[in-house]
From TrEMBL:
Component of the ATP synthase complex composed at least of ATP5F1A/subunit alpha, ATP5F1B/subunit beta, ATP5MC1/subunit c (homooctomer), MT-ATP6/subunit a, MT-ATP8/subunit 8, ATP5ME/subunit e, ATP5MF/subunit f, ATP5MG/subunit g, ATP5MK/subunit k, ATP5MJ/subunit j, ATP5F1C/subunit gamma, ATP5F1D/subunit delta, ATP5F1E/subunit epsilon, ATP5PF/subunit F6, ATP5PB/subunit b, ATP5PD/subunit d, ATP5PO/subunit OSCP. It is found in: Membrane. One of its GO terms (cellular component) is membrane. Belongs to the ATPase delta chain family. GO terms for molecular function: proton-transporting ATP synthase activity, rotational mechanism. It comes from Capitella teleta (Polychaete worm). InterPro entries: ATP_synth_OSCP/delta_N_sf, ATPase_OSCP/d_CS, ATPase_OSCP/dsu. PROSITE patterns: ATPASE_DELTA (PS00389). It comes from the Eukaryota. Keywords: ATP synthesis, Hydrogen ion transport, Ion transport, Membrane, Transport. This is ATP synthase peripheral stalk subunit OSCP, mitochondrial. The keyword Ion transport applies. The keyword Disulfide bond does not apply.
Length: 209
């Protein structure tokens, strides 16, 4: 069975009546990224190809990271949409991407939305994480965490998870924090950095003066 054209699915999101025909995603996302991610989730669910689509989208994201020329081509707004769609179609078919992923990315090219492809893929990843019961936790520290610190952070964060949820911990370094850490769990944000405390105290002192 041929994969549905994603262009039509995305357009369906414009009316509440059409939205009722889409498969409900486990989380609600908004904006252009959210609309495209929801449309793809619905189409892929009906095609029973969620995992393969997720894998292909992330492969496409990896290609953009490695191939700078292709990345520039994909995100260049001056290139005609038809030209971009044709080149993209040939590239995706050569890499044997599935029809549904190919249709989705080509629909984005036709609609002039390829410049947002990275954000749309990230939105789809969020939906898939929620689908699996994964909770994404991002920890930012002033310097890289050692194994013990990371293990302690994981143990602490897991205390806040619901039954059946899985923790996906990612970490990054931001020297501007000075010390401490910033923790993002889903849509929750906790700033435990020394920089934020310094800023807070500086504000208090300034107001007092």
């Amino acid at each position: 069975m041929a994969a549905p054209r994603i262009t039509g699915v995305v357009r369906q999101l414009s009316t509440s009546a059409s939205r009722s025909h889409l498969v409900q995603a486990p989380i609600q996302l908004f904006g252009v990224e959210g609309r495209y991610a929801h449309a793809l989730y619905s189409a892929a669910t009906k095609q029973k190809s969620l995992q393969s689509v997720e894998k292909e989208l992330n492969s496409f994201k990896d290609i953009l990271k490695v191939d700078t020329k292709f990345n520039q081509f994909v995100k260049d707004p001056t290139i005609k949409r038809g030209t971009k769609s044709e080149v993209l179609l040939a590239s995706l078919q050569k890499q044997k991407f599935s029809p549904i992923t190919t249709n989705f990315l080509c629909a984005m090219a036709e609609n002039g939305r390829l410049g947002k492809v990275t954000g749309i893929i990230s939105a789809f990843d969020q939906i898939m994480a929620a689908f699996r019961g994964d909770v994404i936790c991002s920890v930012t520290t002033a310097k890289a965490m050692d194994a013990k610190t990371q293990k302690d952070v994981e143990a602490t964060v897991k205390l806040f998870l619901k039954k059946g949820e899985n923790l996906l911990l990612t970490s990054k370094v931001d020297p501007a924090l000075i010390g401490g850490m910033v923790v993002e769990i889903g849509d929750r944000f906790v700033d435990l950095s020394i920089a934020s405390k310094v800023k807070k105290y500086s504000s208090v002192i300034t107001e007092a003066i």
